């Protein structure tokens, strides 16, 4: 279902797109036939009884009814085998039922960009979720035409997502986890992740869009849950002091596409313009980070941030994050870094059309 261009509500909405409802299980007497117990018991009895009669007819030389005894014995054995097949089939279905996942597609369409692209990616995410998950729920909203959005709107999108998790858990109480598939710009994704947080009862795996036309269209990228990791794929640069900046304001810059000076030079320029006093910079040594490295990259970023040599006033002051790369990383960083005090954070992403950084939410005036 593609996003409707008209009649978009001002507040996020929830829609159950698909649900593979569990079929009612038979009870009591009929349950024994479904799980193979009756077939095994009846087949064993028939096969054994007529098998004994067939053996007796051979030993006594009495041919009367001998082939009927053999036929009935074989039928009993076949019924027993079918009972064990039914039991194994039920076991596999039960195992599959316990491994079902909940899919939640979250879209914040930005009219300042390509609406056609946003619609295409949204539809792609929906198809992926429906093919992978037992139940799919969508939460979507269109941002204001000028490309801005209020904190309250994105907070509401996060709240709707948490509500979607609760609804899905009622539909599928045995589901093992949630597949979160976000479609939004990086700076919005960070704030959205901060609203979600990382302390959910079930594991939430954020999925990322595959670049290209491969199938599936997405892949599991980063869990929201904090995971202890050692090392990481990123290069860590020395903490910088920005001349003339406020020492209580610190920026975290994450170059995940190995842009080098093309990335960090505009970051330094923006820091200077916004009065940011400290800059912590991490970068990838390669242009395209392998999908299996995304989770460890998030863990490394969070660890480096927590261990950075910042003053107490800088720790308790305002923070900024300059983002690049996958949306899944922006969501996970927001959930892990900013969930407890996301009012201190401002997220930036580069706007190629204007050749500068746009941010969300607006920096409070001082």
What does this structure look like?
This protein has 366 residues and is α/β, with parallel strands linked by helices. It has ten helices and 13 strands. The strands form two sheets. Strands 7, 8, 9, 10, 11, 12 and 13 form a seven-stranded mixed β-sheet that branches. Strands 1-3-2-4-5-6 form a six-stranded mixed β-sheet, with helices on both faces. Strand 12 and strand 13 form a beta hairpin. Helix 6 packs across helix 10 and helix 8 runs parallel beside helix 10. The longest helix is centred in the first third of the chain and has 33 residues.
How do the strands and helices of this protein lay out in sequence?
Elements: E1 13-19, H1 28-34, H2 37-60, H3 66-98, E2 101-109, H4 115-132, E3 135-142, H5 151-171, E4 177-183, H6 186-196, E5 203-209, E6 218-223, E7 235-236, E8 240-241, E9 246-255, H7 261-274, E10 276-283, H8 294-307, H9 312-315, E11 319-323, H10 327-337, E12 345-351, E13 356-360
Parallel strand pairs: 2-3, 2-4, 4-5, 9-10, 9-11, 11-12
Antiparallel strand pairs: 1-3, 5-6, 7-10, 8-10, 12-13
Helix pairs in contact: 2-3, 5-6, 6-10, 8-10
């Amino acid at each position: 279902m593609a996003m409707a261009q008209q009649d978009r509500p001002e507040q996020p909405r929830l829609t159950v797109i698909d649900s593979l409802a569990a079929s009612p299980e038979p009870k009591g007497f009929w349950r024994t036939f479904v799980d193979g117990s009756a077939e095994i018991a009846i087949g064993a009895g028939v096969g054994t009884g007529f098998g004994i009669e067939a053996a007796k007819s051979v030993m006594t030389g009495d041919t009367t009814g001998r082939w009927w005894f053999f036929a009935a014995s074989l039928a009993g054995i076949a019924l027993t085998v079918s009972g064990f097949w039914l039991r194994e089939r039920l076991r596999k279905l039960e195992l599959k039922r316990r491994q079902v996942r909940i899919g939640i597609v979250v879209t914040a369409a930005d009219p300042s960009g390509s609406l056609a692209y946003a619609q295409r990616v949204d539809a792609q995410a929906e198809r992926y979720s429906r093919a992978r998950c037992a139940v799919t729920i969508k939460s979507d909203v269109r941002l204001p035409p000028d490309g801005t959005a209020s904190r309250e709107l994105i907070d509401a999108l996060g709240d709707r997502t948490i509500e979607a998790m609760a609804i899905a858990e009622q539909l599928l109480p045995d589901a093992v986890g949630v597949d979160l598939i976000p479609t939004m710009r990086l700076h919005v994704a960070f704030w959205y992740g901060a609203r979600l947080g990382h302390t959910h009862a079930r594991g939430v795996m954020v999925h990322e869009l595959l670049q290209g036309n491969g199938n599936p269209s997405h892949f599991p990228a980063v869990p929201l849950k904090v995971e202890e990791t050692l090392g990481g794929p990123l290069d860590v640069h020395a903490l910088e002091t920005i001349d003339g900046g406020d020492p209580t304001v610190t920026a975290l810059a994450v170059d995940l596409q190995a842009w080098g000076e093309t990335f960090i030079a505009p970051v330094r320029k923006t820091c200077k313009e916004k009065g940011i006093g400290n800059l912590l910079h991490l970068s990838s040594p390669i242009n395209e980070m392998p999908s299996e490295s995304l989770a460890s990259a998030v863990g490394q970023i969070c660890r480096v941030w927590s261990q950075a040599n910042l003053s107490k006033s800088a720790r308790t002051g305002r923070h900024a994050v300059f983002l690049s790369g996958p949306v899944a990383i922006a969501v996970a960083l927001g959930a892990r870094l900013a969930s407890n005090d996301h009012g201190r954070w401002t997220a930036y992403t580069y706007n190629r059309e204007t050749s500068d950084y746009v941010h969300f939410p607006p920096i409070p005036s001082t």
